[in-house]
Amino acid sequence: MIAKLKGIVDSVGEDSAVIDVNGVGYLVSASSRTLRDLVAGGPATLLVETIVREDAIALYGFLDTAERDWFRILTTVQGVGARVALSILSTLAPDDIARAIAGQDRSSLSRAPGVGPKLAARLATELKDKAAAFGVAPVSSRATATPNSAGTAGSVNEDAVSALVNLGYRRVEAFGAVARVTQRLGGDAALDAVIRAGLQELAR
Q: Which residues pair with residue 12 across a beta bridge?
């Protein structure tokens, strides 16, 4: 299996690039984030995930281990193939994916072409524990509860995220900060306390 390619960029297309390694051109599919950093005629070192199908051997390239790791994690979810995983990685950086999953931010996940509400919900549910491996704390069950099922934890979190977004922070950043703060303060924390702690978290 091919795990890494080091050579010269022969050409860059909309969703793939050709890497020339000692005269052999390898067609490598990649996210738009990776392709933006590849320049025809320039050197390139790509981490590669090789997927063998009945009719073809496909190569998927990544500039860093975080993107490759999330590609592997995303493709473990039913309904997420290699193309959808690359679509997600093209839309959200690895850290943003981790924050979105930790914060159960399905709207951010569904921004990626090919990811509908049901698939976004499946990603958020099935991968919430994976976010911890990337330094983002998963949301506790109390933090994600609805007002009717466990006090007002859900509405407090939603209001806190909205307040942080109104202050100019990105939604995925706000979700991640609120998720970490809620786990530290507990699900009964007051809205103003969550917002203050969230601002401190984002200022780090």
A: 17
Residue 180 to residue 18: CA distance in whole angstroms: 41
Q: 160-200, pLDDT tens digit by residue?
A: 888 888 888 877 778 778 877 877 887 677 888 888 888 88
Top CATH class of 4-63 equals: mainly beta
88-110 pLDDT, tens digit each: 999 998 888 988 888 888 999 99
Residues of the chain with CATH 1.10.150.20: 66-134
In 22-75, which ranges are continuous DSSP H helix?
Answer: 32-36, 65-74
pTM higher than the cut 0.70: no
Measured CA to CA in angstroms, residue 157 lies from 30, 69, 126, 184, 200 at distances of 35, 29, 21, 13, 16
